[in-house]
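Field: COMPLEX_INPUT
Field: COMPONENT_COUNT = two
Field: RESIDUE_TOTAL = 618
Field: MODE = joint
Values follow.
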Amino acid sequence: MASNLDIVDDADGFPYEDPTSQGLYLFRVAGLSTTLGYIIPSVLYILRDCPGWSVDEEQRTVVLESGQTIEERSAAIRKTILAMCEKECFSILKGWRDETFPVFGPGHEIVLHIERCACPLFGVVTYGVHVIAYVPAPADDGAMKIWVSRRARSKQTFGGMLDSTAAGGVASGETPLSTILHECNEEASLPSDLVRRNAKAAGAITHFYVRDRRSGGEVGLLQPECQYVYELPVPSGLVCKPNDNEVEAFQLLTVSDIVEALARREFKPNSALVMLDFMIRHGVVTSENEKDYLEIITRLHRRLDFPLR
Amino acid sequence: MASNLDIVDDADGFPYEDPTSQGLYLFRVAGLSTTLGYIIPSVLYILRDCPGWSVDEEQRTVVLESGQTIEERSAAIRKTILAMCEKECFSILKGWRDETFPVFGPGHEIVLHIERCACPLFGVVTYGVHVIAYVPAPADDGAMKIWVSRRARSKQTFGGMLDSTAAGGVASGETPLSTILHECNEEASLPSDLVRRNAKAAGAITHFYVRDRRSGGEVGLLQPECQYVYELPVPSGLVCKPNDNEVEAFQLLTVSDIVEALARREFKPNSALVMLDFMIRHGVVTSENEKDYLEIITRLHRRLDFPLR
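Field: COMPLEX_OUTPUT
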């Protein structure tokens, strides 16, 4: 059985060390001295020959030289990614969705947009939302229950694993709030007015995932992530049902069912962190029953050394 | 008016940089390679002449050489601190309470105990608890209210400032839970059975405070801190009352009263972080209304580069 700290390690495997001493390169854009992501050598090897890029071995930077506006930079990186697709450089690009994620610079300003599936090639921060719908404990002292989804087995990443009630990436043009409204509807058939009225922001988790075999695509690609967390109390009569082909089924689980499923590593890694954070916020995992309580809490809110949204 | 990020800076002013490049020394004990705290040059200057200590300028370490057990190390450091008191080296030692705090090493093992008021001389992590008692929003859609204390003006630190409902340090021999039980009783007259039944652990915040004028004693001493946070829903009829001379009075405030008091910097710095964390957990401060939302969340759970409890 996995400990809670093992579960954190699963989704937060990036070492707390200087990235260049780990052999990584710093992704930047011309005219901006801020590092936007970390690039691994196998990606550098390809970018080195792409037009519009420069590599400085001494500074260990990989700079997108083309473009001075958001639109120009986004078009330039899209061109690079499309060329990579054509040459079939990376299997991760088979996940092309024609949906972009924004990359932020200083002052929360967007620097460029990158095709979603290509983000791990540049090691940029991506943003997601997770909604945990729960039936509050009844007044007669029963237990709280939580709506947990099982991902469709056909999904390209983490098929068949347990997940939050609804979750999704915050794509370009979206906000965390707009994203939860449509994800709750698409994934769990939850009406937007109920979500809008009752969903409560409850913080965020941040972690630095090193992609492994389960995530599909190349192993070792870097994925620093922020998950905005929302809680949604729902009446006991309400039933979450799949509304698209992303979810196989829903289950209404007790807190102890979830603690056991976490220990069996049945949750998708980043969703496991969201669940663990929920358990800490609700006094299920405490300093009395978890020896690594403080370490887990700081890891779940890890500082990412990039400008954030 | 202070922004939420200003409030974080007030209690988390230590730079995210290598401590030795900041001119600091690493506090260690003989036989253990782990750094337990950071020592500033004015303290080093005194320790250099104290028996039982060695300084390595190249490694920038200050090592307590005396003692091989918890008891021996604790006695050795107590002797050093008493000698400092006698010579009146540091005004912070006027706060002597004859109460110790444990310092943890790898594997959550206690390495030694240090007199409470002397901890900032060695820059070791200290642990506190904060309880936020609140009257939940009534079903007819009223607002939640929170019991906030005002510190006695006579207190040696942060006299007259606003504070959580009850708070205190986790002294040697105590646990977070045992500490909240007695602090809730001593500071707010809350009966232990109510606290034991209803208090819910809700996580912890971690931050790195650089002592300033308001904290009394020498400016610039270092205080990495963990605050275990508990929430305590209380019935609307219950009244918090001071039970010792540490608290001047209690007020039952709305969330917006508290947001305003935070912006006026009326809260004690670390209690302000606890309140801010509460506001984030309860969906008052959100990504929609706080541009530095993610930065604030990671700062409130800052990684401290020492072994933790």
